[in-house]
Specification:
Chain B: Keywords: Ligase. The complex is a heterodimer of chains A (96) and B (499). Chain A is mainly β. Chain A is built from no helices and nine strands. Chain A is 0% helix and 31% strand. In chain A, strand 3 and strand 4 (31-32) form a beta hairpin. The N and C termini of chain A lie far apart (33 Å). Chain B has two domains: 4-321, ANL, N-terminal domain (Rossmann fold), CATH 3.40.50; 399-495, 2-Layer Sandwich (GMP Synthetase, Chain A, domain 3). Chain B contains 16 helices and 25 strands. In chain B, 48% of the residues are buried. Classes of the chains: A mainly beta (96), B alpha/beta (499). At the A-B interface, strand 6 of A face helix 1, helix 7, helix 8, strand 13 and strand 14 of B.
């Protein structure tokens, strides 16, 4: 895995672009994400079903991983089972 | 990483929403993406190593920017205002290149092999007609060059600054919330495509899904007309543009003032008098001062709308002075002020501005200017106040060193501009046998005023600043040399003192 790579969910429509990454498995809806989607989606683990929001960035507690949601879906993101959280962005006035 | 994700996401989220308006034609995000993919296929087939634009702003600039990104080839918008003799060497540095725009000029002026000229219309037509390239550009490591911009070269020969996809994406993701613009919002873009602000405007507006209104050549009446016709809510201007808009409104009192929600400005020094005037004239508009450089992927510090209004309304000198600052660093970058030996200076002391962050490339074709810790020396001089506001005091190269004492031209010019008879002033270093360097002044007298005497100007400076700032020579001139974006060409003024 490396920055710029796109990963797809095995459980829903979610797609992310990797901004930062470290050691660990990126999951969505409780199952590992991959470059290609399986032909049939697997069921979403209800523990990881909060959904993803287009254009939001998600980070892990250690700020090792950062993922940008480029397509939203019903599953939510985790690394090795630990849920990712929304990265707080301080809203800035449009400067250009 | 690849900046084409910006357009891809906009098209995925709102394919049929209008993203760009130019010359009366409207482009949806879907249509822009399809054309960018077609352009990528064309670029790939051409074998070009660079995609150059020699043209005013148009849809071709957006299509070429994203098309080049998808094809994995650097995009090089050129300053079409340069003379053939100035442009030739730049074009030599990017061949073989696909050159979009002024084909007649390209054919007449340069004959080198590997220059593939294509007119704007032909390029757009072909980009729209073709499908996507067979395969997307193979992602390397996110370190691919997205853009190469030749710096304006006000102090030296143009340098080829390069911005990588990762720099530009860091800037956009760190400063713009995806799809945050309401569908009614529209940004009026009148900066040329070869300026970093022109590129940043395309990227941030598309990511925010704010409709772009392109004005190819800035002219105040056309700017006001387009703002009114398309209901512009945002605009970016360089200070000279704002000055000309205000001048136009003064001359045509009946002209309606556009109801802009926000005006951002940057790219040059904003005279205090002008920004106070603008704040009065546009009472409902939020002003943002954006300071940045080509090498930093645009903005690194911002003075926001509330700070403008607070400073404008304040009687407290320190708060009021903030209007002369460029605000505070973005949360995603770090700024330090250092002396000539690279030591970090304390608050309030003037030195060279250093910046660090993911959006900072600090890189040229020939070499990287970053130090071992990733800091970029901007060559801009400035200082930070106790609340972290950054004040600029000219280019580090413009500093006048008289007998070991450093002085910035700006402090001298600011004092001179308080004289009612002076319209403009420029202070430069001139050779001095006694001091090494001394202050030379070129001033413009207002048309309706009598010229002040040399003694009067010297007394004014002596009364407000130290005596070391008093000029050794004063020239009264009719005009000062500015480039088209309002940057004062001090290099040229210096030559006036060479006799």
């Amino acid at each position: 895995m490396k920055p710029g790579m796109k990963l797809k969910s095995a459980t829903c429509d979610t797609e992310v672009m990797v901004i930062k990454c470290g050691q660990g498995t990126v999951e969505c809806g409780g199952l590992p994400m991959a470059v290609d989607r399986p032909p049939e989606p697997d069921p979403i683990d209800p523990a990881h079903a909060a959904g993803t929001v287009m254009g939001k960035r998600y980070v892990d507690a250690g700020a090792t991983f950062e993922l940008l949601c480029v397509k939203p879906g019903k599953g939510s993101l985790s690394i090795d089972g630990a849920p990712l959280t929304l990265k707080d962005a301080k809203p800035l006035p449009a400067s250009d | 990483m690849n900046i084409s994700i910006i357009l891809q996401m906009a098209a995925d989220a709102a394919e049929d929403r209008v993203g760009l308006v130019c010359g009366g034609r409207r482009w949806t995000y879907g249509a822009l993406l399809a054309a960018a993919r077609g352009a990528a296929s064309l670029i790939r087939d051409s074998g070009a190593r660079h995609v150059a634009l020699l043209d005013e702003s148009s849809e071709a600039a957006a299509i070429a920017l994203f098309g080049a990104a998808i094809a994995g080839v650097p995009y090089v918008p050129l300053n079409y205002r340069l003379a053939d003799a100035g442009l030739g060497p730049l074009i030599d540095r990017i061949a073989p290149a696909l050159l979009i725009g002024d084909v007649a000029r390209a054919a007449g002026a340069w004959t080198q092999e590997g220059l593939l000229p294509q007119s704007r219309d032909a390029f757009v037509r072909e980009a729209e007609g073709r499908g996507a390239p067979a395969k997307d550009h193979k992602e390397s490591d996110g370190e691919t060059i997205a853009i190469q911009l030749f710096t304006s070269g006000t102090t030296a020969a143009p340098k080829a600054a390069i911005l990588r996809h990762s720099n530009l994406l860091s800037y956009i993701l760190g400063t713009v919330e995806f799809a945050s613009a309401d569908e009614a919002e529209a940004a009026l873009v009148s900066v040329p495509p070869y300026h970093i602000a022109g590129i940043a405007a395309l990227l941030s507006s598309i990511y925010a899904q704010r409709r772009i209104l392109l004005l190819p050549t800035f002219e105040p009446a056309a700017w006001l007309a387009l703002a009114a016709k398309e209901g512009a809510t945002n605009a970016f201007v360089v200070p000279t543009m704002l000055a000309r808009i205000i001048e136009h409104l003064d001359k045509t009192p009946d002209a309606p003032i556009p109801a802009l929600k926000a005006i951002a400005y940057g790219g040059g020094r904003m005279p205090l008098e002008l920004i106070h005037r603008a704040l009065d004239l546009f009472p409902g508009t939020g002003f943002t001062n954006a300071y940045g450089l080509t090498e930093t992927s645009s903005t690194i510090a911002i003075l926001g709308p509330e700070e403008h209004r607070a400073a404008h309304a304040s009687t407290d000198p320190a708060t009021r002075a903030r209007l002369g600052s460029v605000g505070r660093p973005l949360p995603t970058v770090e700024i330090e002020i250092r002396d000539e030996d690279g030591r970090v200076l304390p608050t309030g002391e003037r030195g060279e501005i250093y910046v660090r962050g993911d959006q900072v490339s600090g890189e040229y074709r020939e070499r990287s200017a970053l130090d071992a810790q990733g800091w970029f020396p901007t060559r801009d001089a400035g200082w930070l106040d106790s609340d972290g506001y950054l004040f600029l005091s000219g280019r580090a190269d413009d500093v006048i060193v008289r007998g070991g004492e450093n002085m910035s031209p700006g402090e001298i010019e600011d004092v001179l501009l308080t004289h009612p008879a002076l319209a403009d002033a420029c202070a430069v270093a001139i050779p001095s046998v006694e001091w090494g360097e001394a202050v030379g002044l070129a001033v413009i007298v207002r048309g309706d005023k009598a010229a002040p005497s040399d003694t009067e100007l010297r007394d004014l400076i002596r009364s407000r600043l130290r005596s070391s700032r008093v000029p050794e020579r004063i020239l009264f001139v009719d005009a000062l040399p500015y480039n088209e974006l309002g940057k004062l060409l001090r290099r040229e003024v210096k030559t006036w003192f060479k006799d």
